[in-house]
Amino acid sequence: MFLAASFLLLTAVPTAAPGPITRARYVMGTVCEITASTDREIEAAFAEAVRVEKALLSTWSNESELARLNARGTAQVSPELWNVLSAASEWSEKTDGAFNPLVRPLIDRWKTRGSGEVPEPNTLALARTQAAIGNLKFRPFRTIELSNGAAIEEGAFGKGYALDRVLSLFSDGSAAVLNFGGQLSVKGRTTVTVADPETRHHAIAEFTLVNASLSTSSGSENSFVIGGRRFSHILDPRSGEALPPRGSVSVIADSGLEADILSTALYVMGSTDGLLWCEANRVAAMFINTDKSIQLSRQFRRTAGGLTILDPHFQIKERHE
What is the C-alpha to C-alpha distance for residues 19 and 38, in angstroms, rounded to an integer? Predict the structure, then answer.
């Protein structure tokens, strides 16, 4: 189950699909929908999604390889898990810690998998120490070591990786649309919509997605209020704080893993720093802000085909340089 990634809201759904058959299953803690040409392709795709969840990455049970690594603190891992965690570690470095696969101690202290709680300062300080990316060490012979009480959380990358694995099963000449709880991966072309962060069933933007993945991160729906303050379940790994709801970020990328990671990282950065990072790294991102302004990176303008704003209350904020 990847329910910890529930910030990947159903804010991006296909409005048209290239395949004639659509099937839905409850996998990875959410409704996963696959559109393709044959039931055989779809069955194989769901089987692969279940394998990635149960055998490899879920931390909601003790059965997956990642859960066993977290429990033991060190393990010689499969080439697949080694590669996934290596990529996650690299993205943590690239985003200057805005994405961090070691946020699990912070999640536990804030109880964002439950009803939410503001931790005491000393407790939060310890969790920040445990979440330091330096606690993830890659040793010879594919041995991974987690030191100082560190633990890996798959919520911001597990679904994206699963989408990549599932999409790889479809041949180059085939077409498929995968919608895993709001994150999409497309082989071929489809029209997608992105919703108002505060009202997930109200579409405000529409565009064409071609051979790419789209991930949206928002803290609006999965939030909690303590002492009059509203917190989201998205944490800033750098400060250890739970962030307030502040709109959404949608990212288009070639891979589901990259889109998943970067929508989280850019939400953490915020629109000002996030847009600067996008321009420096040629990332396609759309920020929908609480003031109903929409900010687009240059790469998003190039990548999102036929972008249309559906709600006149939302306006694209043009760049002034």
Answer: 8
Contacts of 298 (CB under 8 A, 6+ apart): 278, 279, 282
Per-residue pLDDT tens for 103-113?
999 999 999 98
User: Which has more confidence, 239 or 220?
Assistant: 239
**pLDDT tens-digit profile of 230-267?**
999 999 999 999 999 999 999 999 999 999 999 999 99
Q: How far apart are CA 174 and CA 179, in angstroms?
A: 17
Could you give the dihedral angle defined by the CA atoms of residues 75, 153, 192 and 44, in that order, rounded to the nearest 10 degrees? 40
Tally of CB atoms within 10 A around 3: 14
Find residue 214's DSSP bridge partners. 184, 252
What is d(CA 278, CA 2) in angstroms, rounded to the nearest whole number? 27
Which positions ≥6 away from 96 have C-beta within 8 Å? 238
- DSSP code per residue over 243-271: PPP--EEEEEESSHHHHHHHHHHHHHH-H
Beta bridge partners of 189: 210
